[in-house]
DNA sequence: CCTACCGATCGGTAGG
DNA sequence: CCTACCGATCGGTAGG
């Protein structure tokens, strides 16, 4: 084992990742300069480069750390002995908790993944797909009639839509907290599942919604 | 009135906006260079500047045009004599139609609005709020018991979450078209509304979900 | 005089 | 750890 880093090294490093995630979330990866990151961290630019190889590595680690956190969460809930519907509800509650706690990293994961090089992008997207698959499986256990139907994946994605979108508009100081919204999302989702019609068999019947009318 | 532009001017201009929207959607506003925009349009950079004042103006017009389109759509549906629930369903169908048709502009609207200067950003966000308010009103007419409750706005945003999120993962060549998904979204939403519990009265009861267990 | 458009290069600033 | 500075590339515009 090589000689250790300074004691505060990892702490400092984690703080840098957090500050960088904040900046990337607000300004986007490309529009954020390493000077800004250094300034936000209270260190000089050369010091910053002591903790991170380059700007790109910041992006890679923020995205990978966050998606790994989501996978850990899913794994924890999967081993719990729970009725299927309760498992889905717990997954929703835990996800919204993490989203609220790591709003910046989550925004980076959803918006800046396009700046990752193919190999890194694949790693992150594969991990994300694993999370979605776990949700889809839990949903199918709670609603066996949906299992292996063409709607299993789409309704899972609609659930993610509700959860993910919340954090593009939800203000941390808002009236409704994530803890209050989680059961609302779960109720809306399960209540809605019961009402969803099973697949349209014909291939894209080109449903025409009325065009504008002329008087 | 000044002498007119060349006949193809407006056509060319619209094509430039469309190409720029594609590039901005795929690479982000900041990471896209005017050289790329010019290349994608098959014109030289000086020619490009003949059609647009500068890069920023591209962003402003893409965002404003798209949000204006959404407002036009809402206004059209609002004047139709329809039962409340049908109005919401038509709004959903029309929105997903526009999203599918203008996927690039929609992505720019949701992801690159942060690069707008305050005054322009306010204009766009105000227009967006108008669209959301129209949805919220239509929803409240379909479900009067929800009107003016703390949940009216949140459930409206959850609906937008489902619609908007679809287009961050939906492939144009996928199995399910937007026309097939629109009724699924509507069914899920209305079915779910019936199941949603009305507000938690106590202020943020800090629902604790279990932490990880140690064996 | 106008428009439309080229090749070449400007001043400033990015990551490093 | 800082000042200083690089090679490369940005958005935008000069002359012709």
Could you describe the 3D structure shown?
- Two copies of one chain form a homodimer.
- The radius of gyration of chain A is 21 Å and the shape is elongated.
- Helices cover about 70% and strands about 0% of the residues of chain A.
- Chain A has a domain at about 55-195: Tetracycline Repressor, domain 2, CATH 1.10.357.
- Chain A is mainly alpha-helical and about 220 residues long.
- The structure holds a DNA duplex (16 and 16 nucleotides).
Summary of the model, kept short:
The first copy, chain A, has about 220 residues and is an all-alpha fold.
Quaternary organization = homodimer
CA radius of gyration of chain A: 21 Å
Number of helices of chain A: 9
The 3D shape of chain A can be described as elongated
List key phrases describing it:
DNA-binding; 215 residues; elongated; Tetracycline Repressor, domain 2; homodimer; disordered C terminus
SSE topology:
Two copies of one chain form a homodimer.
Chain A: H1 9-27, H2 34-41, H3 45-51, H4 55-78, H5 84-101, H6 103-111, H7 118-142, H8 152-169, H9 178-195
Helix pairs in contact in A: 1-2, 1-4, 1-6, 4-5, 4-6, 4-7, 5-7, 5-9, 7-8, 8-9
Chain B binds a DNA duplex (16 and 16 nucleotides) through residues 3, 5-6, 33-35, 43-47, 49-50, 54-55.
């Amino acid at each position: 084992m090589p000689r250790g880093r300074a004691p505060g090294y990892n702490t400092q490093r984690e703080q840098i990742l957090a500050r960088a995630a904040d900046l990337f979330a607000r300004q986007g990866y490309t529009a954020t300069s390493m000077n800004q990151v250094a300034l936000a961290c209270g260190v000089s630019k050369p010091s910053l480069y002591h903790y991170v190889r380059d700007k790109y590595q910041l992006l890679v680690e923020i995205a990978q750390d966050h998606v790994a956190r989501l996978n850990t969460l899913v794994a924890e809930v999967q081993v719990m002995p729970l009725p299927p519907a309760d498992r889905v509800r717990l997954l929703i509650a835990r996800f919204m908790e993490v989203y609220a706690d790591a709003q910046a990293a989550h925004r980076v994961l959803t918006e800046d993944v396009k700046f990752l090089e193919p190999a890194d992008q694949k790693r992150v997207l594969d991990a994300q797909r694993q999370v979605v698959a776990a949700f889809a499986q839990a949903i199918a256990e709670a609603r066996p009639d949906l299992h292996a139907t063409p709607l299993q994946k789409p309704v899972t994605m609609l659930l993610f839509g509700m959860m993910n979108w919340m954090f593009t508009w939800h203000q941390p100081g808002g009236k409704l907290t994530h803890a209050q919204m989680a059961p609302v999302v779960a109720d809306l989702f399960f209540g809605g599942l019961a009402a969803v019609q099973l697949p349209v068999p014909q291939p894209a019947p080109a449903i025409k919604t009325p065009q504008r009318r002329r008087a």
